[in-house]
Write a structure and sequence with these properties.
The chain is of the alpha/beta class. The chain is built from eight helices and 16 strands.
């Protein structure tokens, strides 16, 4: 079977999460793991890697930010239209390592999308963890995605939302997400794992703050956003040093990721 062959899939739902981010629910029997990605394409326009923001029996969600020709075209689709997918690819979050630990998830901007399935998993299976803290950082109130989900998560978990710049209507916290890391009450027994996902600068400085809080690098996990092309380690577009992000990631342990030079 040709590994580049795509599957024509029907869009069965569209929701607007923010001005630039919309979520497209695609009909498929493929079953990803939290943290994996698919390649999405439209004929004559192009293909791009998109992380999974949710999945269930017979469907997968993709939260897509409108930033270029392909994503502009996808945002022009409607329910019932077709999109082409292949995957899932890459390594997801190490769920076995999280079991029985206190988990901290720090997400910046659209980086919330790939960790949303992880939060949903533990929302339905809270007993698998000792505890869960969620730190979410956005540029401004208008860029907050999944507001209804965030309200739901607050019923079970400690959720902190901050924006870089607030407005007259914003009643929450302001400032960088790194400031919220400094304020956290972390378990003293050290049985903590941390997930950090977002833009590269956000991941770099947020992970560094957790290291200052005495979290070992081996207990910190990040997810790389790269322009993966083939998805199977053949084209080299996503290669950093000797690692292929599409194969060795996108989820990587920080002890390895911190030493990669891009």
């Amino acid at each position: 079977m040709n590994p580049y062959r795509t599957i024509q899939s029907r869009i069965i739902g569209i929701s607007k999460d923010a001005e630039l981010e919309w979520t497209f629910r695609v009909e498929t029997s493929l079953k990803p793991c939290p943290g994996q990605f698919f390649q999405l394409s439209l004929p004559t326009i192009g293909e791009a890697p998109i992380s999974v923001s949710g999945f269930g029996d017979g469907w997968v969600d993709f939260t897509i930010r409108r930033v270029g020709n392909l994503t502009n075209a996808i945002h022009g689709l409607k329910s019932g239209d077709s999109i082409f997918i292949r995957g899932p690819y890459g390594k997801g979050f190490p769920l076995d390592k999280f079991t029985g630990t206190h988990l901290v998830i720090a997400a910046g901007g659209s980086g919330l999308a790939p960790v949303k399935p992880l939060i949903s998993k533990y929302f339905d299976n809270q007993s698998e963890l000792k505890g869960l803290d969620i730190l979410l950082g956005f540029k401004n109130p208008g860029s907050v995605i999944f507001p209804d989900e965030i309200k739901k998560w607050k019923k079970k978990f400690n959720v902190v939302v901050t924006v870089d710049r607030g407005d007259n209507l914003w009643k929450g916290k302001t400032g960088l997400i790194t400031e919220r890391v400094k304020e956290m009450n972390l378990p003293e027994d050290g049985n903590v794992n941390v997930v950090v996902v977002g833009p590269p600068a956000m991941m770099k400085f947020t992970a560094a703050e957790f290291v200052l809080r005495k979290i070992p690098q081996e207990r910190i996990w990040v997810s790389f956003e790269r322009l993966m092309s083939c998805g199977i380690g053949k084209c080299g577009h996503c290669k950093i040093d000797y690692h292929y992000v599409c194969l060795d990631g996108p989820v990587m342990n920080y002890s390895m990721a911190a030493r990669l030079i891009d």
